[in-house]
Specification:
single chain; two-stranded antiparallel sheet; 315 residues; 17% strand; globular
């Protein structure tokens, strides 16, 4: 498995980051064993970067695999830490440390390599988010200094929901990376990603397959069975965007799954792609697709041109 240095850190992470977003939340789920085998297979394939969140409710499934795997001490964990959460009035450093301690226990590790820090608020709009960030910025930076001194975390990254918040988050003292949704259909963070790189901060992409739209399973919205979640009307524009990509880019036409897996890694500053790995077969497929990707500004620019046209038409 190819590895890349996450800019701004000492972390050499696998280009595929295991994501358990769709794993079972109950021991009674018959898919539990399949997902545990997928996690074990990912580690065996050389995936050393593991993403998780207490919000997913799936760490109980991960714990026995991580506890018993012979390579568990080689793993680098990135965890979501939404503090403040939606209904919290302000940032609480004790709550942040509680989330870290939960992860250390559940993931059977001594240190969280990267904390995906998030700040939430209501209303979920830029003015309120930026105002909140300005109030808590120094307290957040100080909390991470203390957590590093305790040896509980290595580095901090931010997950801003919107581009303006992303720009503001780059100024947080101690921030080392930007984590964001990024794929050929969601490219609104591209400017912030470039600004992060210019400041020596890295990037990790989430949602490369755009919830399954950017795969080989369905080429057109009309192909989606009526009882499938992607049949919802809200996905029609995404499938139209997918069609434009396939028309313009030969690699996308050949295999959308392969193209979408590789696309974020065409940015030099992108160290890893967080993707749900739900079976051993999917592990083998996506890990294979992610090998040998080189920076490709030409393809990124072509995808951006399509994104700009589609966004203009939708607006």
């Amino acid at each position: 498995m190819d590895k890349r240095r996450l800019q701004g850190t000492d972390l050499d992470v696998s280009v595929i980051c295991y994501g358990p977003m769709r794993a079972p939340q109950s021991e009674d789920d018959p898919a539990t064993a399949r997902h545990q085998r997928a996690l074990s297979a990912a580690i065996d394939h050389g995936v050393n970067f593991i993403h998780s969140s207490y919000e997913y409710g799936v760490r109980w499934m991960m714990t026995p695999v991580l506890r018993d795997h012979p390579r568990r001490h080689e793993l680098l964990h990135v965890i979501k830490a939404p503090v403040p959460a939606w209904d919290d009035p302000e940032f609480d450093p004790d709550k942040l440390e509680m989330r870290i301690d939960e992860a250390l226990r559940d993931l059977c590790t001594d240190r969280i390599a990267l904390v995906q820090w998030m700040w939430r608020c209501r209303p979920h709009e830029e003015p309120a988010r930026i105002a909140l960030l300005e109030r808590i910025r120094d307290a957040v930076a100080e909390a991470f200094v203390r957590l590093r001194e305790k040896g509980k975390v290595a580095h901090m990254a931010t997950f801003p929901y919107f581009p303006q918040s992303a720009q503001a988050a780059l100024d947080i003292e101690g921030n080392r990376a930007l984590i964001a949704y990024y794929n050929p259909i969601e490219m609104e963070m591209l400017s912030a990603i470039g600004d992060a790189a210019s400041r020596g901060q890295g990037f990790i992409a989430i949602r490369p397959l755009y919830e399954g739209v950017l795969t080989d399973r369905f080429a057109d919205h009309a192909d989606v069975p009526s009882d499938h979640r992607l049949a919802a009307p809200k996905y029609s524009s995404a499938f139209a965007h997918r069609a434009r990509l396939a028309e313009a880019l030969p690699e996308a036409a050949e295999s959308m799954t392969r193209f979408a897996t590789r696309f974020p890694l065409m940015l030099e500053s992108c160290a890893s792609v967080v993707v749900g790995l739900n079976s051993e077969e999917q592990v083998a497929e996506l890990c294979g697709h992610a090998q040998g990707v080189r920076p490709d500004p030409k393809t990124v620019a072509a995808a951006r041109a399509i994104y700009d046209r589609m966004t203009w038409q939708e607006g």
